[in-house]
Amino acid sequence: MFSICLLLCLFAQSSAPEARAAGTITTLVDGLVLDDPAEYSSEAEYVNASLAKIIDYLDLDDCPDWLKVLLVHDFICEFIAYDIGYRTADLYEVLISGRGVCNDYAELTFRLLSELDVNCRYVSCLEMKHAWNVVEVQGKWYNMDVTWDDSYF
């Protein structure tokens, strides 16, 4: 069942934050507006606050791990647009711009799933110049490559 759900995610639409409006970052993710980074004293504080806001938005407290994985996967496919200029960013830049490359997709996946108490690992390969995740669902580990599942890419 989990494999079928992940296959369905191939058709998710991607998007990026659209514009700044009244001191906020309006995303194309329906109903999600992130705060203005200028309201925070550090990039780390902004990242943590934004991750908390995303987790609240997703509202996955009572969901089983497989559903958390699926919905975080779909959210990231919708939130990040692949940066075809291959500019590596940090999570702060990704949250502001909505653009990133494979390591950004994998890092956001890792951070969100870790906050949701799902076993997740960040994997990278220098030879492949690529990054992805492995996640544990119902006692089994699965490779999950949100970058390749993003329809924008």
What does this structure look like?
- The chain is built from six helices and eight strands.
- The chain has helices at 2-8, 43-58, 65-79, 91-97, 102-115, 146-149; strands at residues 19-21, 24-26, 33-35, 81-82, 99-100, 120-125, 130-137, 140-144.
- Strand 4 (81-82), helix 4 (91-97) and strand 5 (99-100) form a beta-alpha-beta unit.
- Helix 3 (65-79) runs antiparallel to helix 5.
- It is globular, with a radius of gyration of 15 Å.
Distance between the termini: 25 Å
Counting copies of identical and different chains, the oligomeric state is: single chain
Helix content, binned percent? 40-55%
- Give the strand order, joined by hyphens, for the main sheet: 1-2-3
Q: Tell me the overall shape.
A: globular
Summarize it.
The chain is α+β, with helices and mostly antiparallel strands and 153 residues long. It has helices at 2-8, 43-58, 65-79, 91-97, 102-115, 146-149, and strands spanning 19-21, 24-26, 33-35, 81-82, 99-100, 120-125, 130-137, 140-144.
How does the SSE layout of this entry go?
Elements: H1 2-8, E1 19-21, E2 24-26, E3 33-35, H2 43-58, H3 65-79, E4 81-82, H4 91-97, E5 99-100, H5 102-115, E6 120-125, E7 130-137, E8 140-144, H6 146-149
Parallel strand pairs: 4-5
Antiparallel strand pairs: 1-2, 2-3, 6-7, 7-8
Helix pairs in contact: 3-5
Tags for this entry?
single chain, 153 residues, alpha+beta, three-stranded antiparallel beta sheet, 6 helices, 8 strands, 21% strand, globular, disordered N terminus
